[in-house]
Amino acid sequence: MKIFEETALKMSEFLLQIKAIKLNVAKPFTWASGLKSPIYCDNRLTLSYPMIRTFIRQEFARIINEEYGQVDVIAGVATGAIAHGVLVAQDLGLPFVYIRSAEKKHGLGNKIEGRIDAGQSVVVIEDLISTGKSSLAAVDALREAGCNVKGMLAIFSYMLPKALSNFKDANCQLFTLSNYNILIQQALNENYISESDLNRLLKWSEDPEKWSNKYK
Questions:
Q1: Residue 96 structural domain
Q2: First CA to last CA across the chain, in angstroms?
Q3: In the chain, how many domains are there?
Q4: Whole-angstrom Cα distance, residue 111 to residue 141?
Protein backbone atom coordinates (compact mmCIF):
# COMPACT_ATOMS: atom_id res chain seq x y z
CA MET A 1 0.00 0.00 0.00
CA LYS A 2 1.62 3.24 -1.15
CA ILE A 3 0.87 6.83 -0.23
CA PHE A 4 2.24 10.30 -0.94
CA GLU A 5 2.59 12.24 2.33
CA GLU A 6 1.88 15.76 1.06
CA THR A 7 -1.21 14.54 -0.81
CA ALA A 8 -2.32 12.51 2.21
CA LEU A 9 -2.14 15.48 4.57
CA LYS A 10 -4.15 17.67 2.19
CA MET A 11 -6.73 14.93 1.57
CA SER A 12 -7.11 14.37 5.32
CA GLU A 13 -7.62 18.10 5.83
CA PHE A 14 -10.35 18.13 3.19
CA LEU A 15 -12.15 15.07 4.60
CA LEU A 16 -12.20 16.53 8.11
CA GLN A 17 -13.22 19.96 6.82
CA ILE A 18 -16.37 18.70 5.05
CA LYS A 19 -17.13 16.12 7.77
CA ALA A 20 -16.79 13.22 5.35
CA ILE A 21 -14.89 11.63 8.24
CA LYS A 22 -16.60 11.36 11.59
CA LEU A 23 -14.66 10.32 14.71
CA ASN A 24 -16.40 9.32 17.93
CA VAL A 25 -14.63 7.14 20.48
CA ALA A 26 -17.39 7.39 23.12
CA LYS A 27 -20.24 6.40 20.80
CA PRO A 28 -18.86 4.12 18.06
CA PHE A 29 -20.52 3.71 14.69
CA THR A 30 -21.88 0.36 13.51
CA TRP A 31 -20.72 -0.76 10.08
CA ALA A 32 -22.87 -2.90 7.78
CA SER A 33 -20.82 -5.90 8.90
CA GLY A 34 -21.87 -5.27 12.50
CA LEU A 35 -18.37 -4.15 13.48
CA LYS A 36 -18.23 -1.25 15.95
CA SER A 37 -15.89 1.49 14.85
CA PRO A 38 -14.83 4.92 16.17
CA ILE A 39 -14.61 6.19 12.60
CA TYR A 40 -17.12 6.53 9.77
CA CYS A 41 -16.11 7.64 6.30
CA ASP A 42 -18.50 8.92 3.61
CA ASN A 43 -16.43 9.88 0.58
CA ARG A 44 -19.54 10.55 -1.50
CA LEU A 45 -19.61 13.96 0.15
CA THR A 46 -16.47 14.91 -1.77
CA LEU A 47 -18.51 15.01 -4.97
CA SER A 48 -20.46 18.00 -3.63
CA TYR A 49 -17.32 20.15 -3.36
CA PRO A 50 -15.82 21.10 -6.76
CA MET A 51 -12.37 22.02 -5.39
CA ILE A 52 -12.04 18.72 -3.49
CA ARG A 53 -13.49 16.73 -6.37
CA THR A 54 -10.94 18.33 -8.68
CA PHE A 55 -8.10 17.61 -6.26
CA ILE A 56 -9.04 13.92 -6.16
CA ARG A 57 -9.28 13.71 -9.95
CA GLN A 58 -5.96 15.43 -10.50
CA GLU A 59 -4.13 13.33 -7.90
CA PHE A 60 -5.53 10.08 -9.28
CA ALA A 61 -4.55 11.11 -12.81
CA ARG A 62 -1.06 12.14 -11.68
CA ILE A 63 -0.43 8.83 -9.90
CA ILE A 64 -1.65 6.83 -12.89
CA ASN A 65 0.63 8.75 -15.25
CA GLU A 66 3.66 8.53 -12.95
CA GLU A 67 3.25 4.96 -11.73
CA TYR A 68 1.52 3.10 -14.56
CA GLY A 69 2.13 5.01 -17.76
CA GLN A 70 0.12 3.56 -20.64
CA VAL A 71 -3.31 2.33 -19.54
CA ASP A 72 -6.17 1.22 -21.77
CA VAL A 73 -9.20 1.53 -19.47
CA ILE A 74 -10.21 3.10 -16.15
CA ALA A 75 -12.61 1.00 -14.05
CA GLY A 76 -14.70 2.15 -11.09
CA VAL A 77 -16.08 -0.01 -8.31
CA ALA A 78 -19.85 0.45 -7.92
CA THR A 79 -21.27 2.53 -6.58
CA GLY A 80 -19.06 4.88 -4.63
CA ALA A 81 -16.23 5.09 -7.16
CA ILE A 82 -18.23 5.42 -10.38
CA ALA A 83 -18.30 9.23 -10.44
CA HIS A 84 -14.64 9.64 -9.52
CA GLY A 85 -13.67 6.97 -12.04
CA VAL A 86 -15.53 8.75 -14.81
CA LEU A 87 -13.80 12.04 -13.96
CA VAL A 88 -10.37 10.38 -14.07
CA ALA A 89 -11.15 8.60 -17.36
CA GLN A 90 -12.32 11.90 -18.85
CA ASP A 91 -9.17 13.67 -17.66
CA LEU A 92 -6.95 10.99 -19.22
CA GLY A 93 -9.04 10.59 -22.36
CA LEU A 94 -9.64 6.89 -21.65
CA PRO A 95 -12.63 4.53 -21.81
CA PHE A 96 -14.48 3.82 -18.58
CA VAL A 97 -16.24 0.76 -17.19
CA TYR A 98 -17.65 -0.06 -13.79
CA ILE A 99 -17.93 -3.28 -11.85
CA ARG A 100 -21.07 -4.28 -9.98
CA SER A 101 -20.93 -6.07 -6.64
CA ALA A 102 -22.87 -8.91 -8.26
CA GLU A 103 -24.12 -9.84 -11.71
CA LYS A 104 -27.20 -7.95 -12.84
CA LYS A 105 -30.34 -9.99 -12.17
CA HIS A 106 -32.00 -9.10 -15.47
CA GLY A 107 -31.12 -8.08 -19.02
CA LEU A 108 -27.65 -9.26 -20.02
CA GLY A 109 -26.66 -10.22 -16.48
CA ASN A 110 -23.48 -8.15 -16.64
CA LYS A 111 -21.09 -7.71 -13.76
CA ILE A 112 -18.83 -5.39 -15.75
CA GLU A 113 -20.73 -2.53 -17.40
CA GLY A 114 -19.17 -0.93 -20.45
CA ARG A 115 -16.90 -2.15 -23.24
CA ILE A 116 -13.76 -3.98 -22.21
CA ASP A 117 -11.66 -6.56 -24.07
CA ALA A 118 -9.32 -9.31 -22.97
CA GLY A 119 -5.71 -8.16 -22.93
CA GLN A 120 -6.47 -4.55 -22.03
CA SER A 121 -4.62 -2.92 -19.14
CA VAL A 122 -6.81 -1.46 -16.40
CA VAL A 123 -6.43 0.74 -13.33
CA VAL A 124 -9.26 0.42 -10.81
CA ILE A 125 -10.65 3.40 -8.89
CA GLU A 126 -12.21 2.86 -5.44
CA ASP A 127 -13.50 5.33 -2.87
CA LEU A 128 -12.82 3.46 0.37
CA ILE A 129 -10.83 0.42 1.51
CA SER A 130 -11.92 -1.42 4.66
CA THR A 131 -11.00 -5.12 4.48
CA GLY A 132 -10.52 -4.89 0.71
CA LYS A 133 -12.84 -7.85 0.07
CA SER A 134 -15.38 -6.08 -2.17
CA SER A 135 -12.66 -4.02 -3.88
CA LEU A 136 -10.65 -7.12 -4.77
CA ALA A 137 -13.80 -8.86 -6.02
CA ALA A 138 -13.85 -6.17 -8.74
CA VAL A 139 -10.21 -6.96 -9.54
CA ASP A 140 -11.08 -10.66 -9.80
CA ALA A 141 -13.94 -9.88 -12.21
CA LEU A 142 -11.59 -7.92 -14.49
CA ARG A 143 -8.95 -10.64 -14.39
CA GLU A 144 -11.57 -13.26 -15.22
CA ALA A 145 -12.45 -11.13 -18.26
CA GLY A 146 -8.81 -11.45 -19.36
CA CYS A 147 -7.69 -7.96 -18.35
CA ASN A 148 -4.31 -6.93 -16.95
CA VAL A 149 -5.11 -5.07 -13.73
CA LYS A 150 -2.14 -2.79 -13.10
CA GLY A 151 -3.37 -1.69 -9.68
CA MET A 152 -5.98 0.15 -7.64
CA LEU A 153 -6.27 3.74 -6.42
CA ALA A 154 -8.54 4.74 -3.52
CA ILE A 155 -9.39 7.96 -1.73
CA PHE A 156 -9.03 6.53 1.77
CA SER A 157 -8.02 3.35 3.59
CA TYR A 158 -8.71 2.35 7.19
CA MET A 159 -5.34 0.55 7.10
CA LEU A 160 -6.80 -2.60 8.64
CA PRO A 161 -4.30 -5.47 8.87
CA LYS A 162 -6.77 -7.70 7.02
CA ALA A 163 -6.81 -5.34 4.04
CA LEU A 164 -3.03 -5.22 3.83
CA SER A 165 -2.96 -9.02 3.85
CA ASN A 166 -5.75 -9.33 1.27
CA PHE A 167 -4.08 -6.99 -1.23
CA LYS A 168 -0.76 -8.76 -0.80
CA ASP A 169 -2.38 -12.17 -1.37
CA ALA A 170 -4.18 -10.84 -4.45
CA ASN A 171 -0.92 -9.39 -5.83
CA CYS A 172 -2.67 -6.06 -6.39
CA GLN A 173 -0.78 -2.80 -5.85
CA LEU A 174 -2.77 -0.16 -3.95
CA PHE A 175 -2.26 3.60 -3.78
CA THR A 176 -4.42 5.72 -1.47
CA LEU A 177 -4.76 9.49 -1.28
CA SER A 178 -4.94 9.29 2.50
CA ASN A 179 -5.26 6.73 5.28
CA TYR A 180 -6.40 6.23 8.85
CA ASN A 181 -3.06 6.81 10.58
CA ILE A 182 -2.36 10.08 8.79
CA LEU A 183 -5.93 11.30 9.23
CA ILE A 184 -6.14 10.79 13.00
CA GLN A 185 -2.80 12.56 13.46
CA GLN A 186 -4.17 15.42 11.37
CA ALA A 187 -7.33 15.38 13.49
CA LEU A 188 -5.19 15.76 16.62
CA ASN A 189 -3.20 18.62 15.08
CA GLU A 190 -6.42 20.44 14.21
CA ASN A 191 -7.98 19.78 17.65
CA TYR A 192 -10.73 17.53 16.35
CA ILE A 193 -9.64 14.94 18.93
CA SER A 194 -7.59 14.80 22.15
CA GLU A 195 -4.41 12.84 22.93
CA SER A 196 -6.44 10.27 24.86
CA ASP A 197 -8.78 9.90 21.87
CA LEU A 198 -5.75 9.33 19.64
CA ASN A 199 -4.53 6.45 21.77
CA ARG A 200 -7.94 4.77 21.69
CA LEU A 201 -8.22 5.28 17.95
CA LEU A 202 -4.82 3.64 17.46
CA LYS A 203 -5.96 0.68 19.59
CA TRP A 204 -8.95 0.15 17.29
CA SER A 205 -6.78 -0.06 14.17
CA GLU A 206 -4.55 -2.68 15.80
CA ASP A 207 -7.43 -5.11 16.38
CA PRO A 208 -10.87 -3.82 15.25
CA GLU A 209 -12.74 -6.98 16.21
CA LYS A 210 -11.34 -7.06 19.75
CA TRP A 211 -12.10 -3.34 20.13
CA SER A 212 -15.62 -3.86 18.76
CA ASN A 213 -16.37 -6.76 21.12
CA LYS A 214 -16.19 -4.40 24.10
CA TYR A 215 -19.42 -2.77 22.92
CA LYS A 216 -21.46 -5.97 22.50
A1: 2-213
A2: 32
A3: 1
A4: 8
Helix runs in the chain, H state only: 5-17, 50-67, 82-92, 133-144, 161-169, 180-189, 195-206, 208-213
Q: Tell me the pTM.
A: 0.93
Characterize the bridge pairing of strands 96-99 and 73-77.
parallel
More confident residue, 169 or 34: 169
Cα–Cα distances in Å, from 164 out to 37, 149, 168? 18, 18, 6
What CATH number is attached to the domain comprising 16? 3.40.50.2020
Q: 2 forms bridges with which residues in the sheet?
A: 175
pLDDT in tens, 37-79: 999 999 999 999 999 999 999 999 999 999 999 999 999 999 9
> What is residue 102's three-state secondary structure?
coil
Q: How many CB atoms lie within 10 A of CB 212?
A: 19
The Cα 10–Cα 12 span in angstroms is 5
Q: How many CB atoms lie within 10 A of CB 69?
A: 9
For residue 22, count CB atoms less than 10 angstroms from its CB and return exposed for 0-12, middle for 13-18, buried for 19 or more: middle
Q: Which of 215, 60, 59, 24 lies closest to 151 in space, CA to CA? A: 60
